[in-house]
């Protein structure tokens, strides 16, 4: 009996994770469609737009591209139900997002995945939960305007066992860690947005090599 209960619990967790993955992938589809219309998801949500029709038009495209994820996405309900999740802040507001560990905002026109390249790097801004929503709004808006780097992402309210404390973090990516002029230009832009305390910059290649903060070990490449 106990083994059966454990199995059922594991299946529930797997089902929930698959649903969250499906929602995340669908959100990418939505963002791509809205970018063609020279807008973005957060702008539509914050303007109070009803996204039901847009969700409905994206669903067939998503279903053709990712058939295995269709049942998982369907578990969230209709296009109107998915639109309701966005309206409630899911995928938009860090403290109201529980289906994804991260919210990401790329600079318009930047190819998907560029922020994850080994030659890229990111400024790290650590924040208390009560400060993260306003801070993310500043970074996100500047990213869409094209004044920062190539992309940014922020940790959310979804419980993450890898978190070391209650703080949230915003990553602001630049295309090449070796381009110090561009890296520092982005740092100056962040200061203009109000992030004046010293922050560190980490190369993606160090992250992929498993270089994390340890006592007496320097893992940030720049610190300004």
UniProtKB/TrEMBL annotation:
Superkingdom of this protein's organism: Archaea
Signal peptide: none
Gene3D superfamilies associated with the record: RNA Cap, Translation Initiation Factor Eif4e
Stated family: Belongs to the UPF0696 family.
Name this protein carries in UniProt: DUF1917 domain-containing protein
Upper taxonomic lineage: Archaea, Methanobacteriati, Methanobacteriota, Stenosarchaea group, Methanomicrobia
């Amino acid at each position: 009996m106990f083994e059966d209960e454990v199995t059922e619990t594991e299946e529930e967790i797997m089902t929930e994770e698959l649903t969250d993955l499906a929602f995340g992938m669908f959100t990418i589809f939505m963002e791509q469609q809205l970018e063609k219309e020279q807008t973005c998801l957060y702008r539509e949500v914050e303007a109070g737009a009803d996204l039901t029709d847009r969700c409905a038009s994206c669903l067939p495209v998503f279903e053709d591209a990712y058939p295995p994820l269709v049942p998982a996405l369907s578990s969230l309900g209709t296009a109107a139900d998915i639109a309701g999740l966005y309206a409630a802040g899911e995928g938009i507001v860090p403290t109201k997002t529980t289906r994804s560990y991260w919210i990401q905002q790329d600079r318009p026109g930047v190819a998907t995945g560029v922020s994850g390249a080994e030659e890229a790097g990111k400024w790290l801004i650590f924040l208390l939960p009560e400060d993260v929503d306003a801070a993310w709004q500043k970074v996100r808006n500047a990213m869409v305007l094209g004044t920062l780097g190539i992309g940014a992402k922020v940790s959310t309210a979804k419980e993450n066992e890898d978190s070391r404390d209650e703080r949230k973090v915003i990553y602001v990516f630049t295309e090449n860690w070796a381009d110090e002029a561009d890296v520092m230009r982005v740092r100056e832009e962040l200061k203009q947005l109000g992030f004046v305390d010293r922050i560190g910059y980490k190369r993606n290649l160090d992250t992929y090599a498993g270089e994390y903060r340890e006592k007496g070990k320097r893992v940030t490449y720049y610190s300004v």
